[in-house]
Amino acid sequence: MAALGWLTPRRRSATARSVLAGEAAAEAARKSSQTIEALEALEEGPGAREPEFPVAGDVRAAAFFDLDNTVMQGAAIFHFGRGLYKRKFFQRRELARFAWQQTWFRLAGVEDPDHMQDVRESALSIVKGHRVSELMSIGEEIYDEYMADRIWPGTRALAQAHLDAGQKVWLVTAAPVETATIIARRLGLTGALGTVAESVDGVYTGKLVGEPLHGPAKAEAVRALAAAEGLDLSRCAAYSDSHNDIPMLSLVGHPYAINPDTKLRKHARERDWRLRDYRTGRKAAKVGIPAAAGVGALAGGTAAAVALHRRRR
Asked: How many CA atoms lie within 13 A of 225 on its CB side?
């Protein structure tokens, strides 16, 4: 199936569907945060804070983190698909496709519109007719099985710095909002903005509300949430690995390129944005400002994430 127009790499203004997706994600995120706020935050991960940012006590500031390849190695929706296959939601043929897409994503380190669109359509067809509560319960198990050991320690430390400063921290992702909410809660974050799948009487219809939360839709979601929460975007921070998230990064006063793809790295350097790379074990220099984060956060990748998980257990 050909990629939809909103997936093309050229710049364009947000469409009405992007606005609808963003507003739906913001509303779902605000509801989910009411539950998450009552749960205990995770212990602080390794890594050092910025000496002057985030500003402690600045309640009009918040942080927005992309998920795939920024907070977590690989794509959440692929890991979720793997867990659903284990529970016999679909057959081996679909699993092979999920596996290939995940392998490509990890090797390339960037989001390919055709791959991402294909897997979203597959996921929608798989969950159609299932209850939201059922998928939420399964999602908890899948996080433990396939996602917990894939969190980047360095990025986790950056999120913790915002939490320690008294600021709210949100995930912003094209993954389903239910999956994103589970990950946010497990990491002790405030909540999540994610793609909203339509449900009627608690049962998935196989359709989306608006469009996937990708590119311009992410920016619309952040804008809508900031307005609802009374945030000053010029005092907020955003973190992403992908050039597709330039619209979101450009909204805030403190944009970070995390494990950036080639296009985002170039864009960040041209605009003097901060940069972190946890993929090779080196502490990347922040563009134009001395690097401070990353001390104690060893090489990204599976080995480091597993080591962190074992220490915590």
From this structure: 36
Q: Which residues are catalytic?
A: 66, 68
CB 66 within 8 A of CB 134: no
**Which residue carries 């993954």 as its tokens?**
175
Task: Render pLDDT for 225-258 as a digit per residue (tens, 0 to 9).
Answer: 999 999 999 999 999 999 999 999 999 999 999 9
- The DSSP symbol for 144 reads I
pLDDT digits (tens, 9 = 90+) for 142-156: 999 999 999 999 999
The residue count for the chain? 313
Look-up of token digits 């917990």: 148
| Residues in a beta bridge with 171 | 65, 192
Query: What is the structure's pLDDT at 4?
Result: 40
Reduced to 3 states (helix: H, G, I; strand: E, B; else coil), residue 42 is coil
The whole-number pLDDT of residue 82 equals 83
> In this predicted model, which residue has the larger pLDDT, 295 or 198?
198
Torsions phi, psi for 71 (to 5 deg): -90, -35
pLDDT in tens, 253-299: 999 999 999 999 999 999 999 999 998 654 433 333 223 233 222 22
Report the distance separating Cα 70 and Cα 151, nearest Å.
9
Contact 32, 177 (CB under 8 A): yes
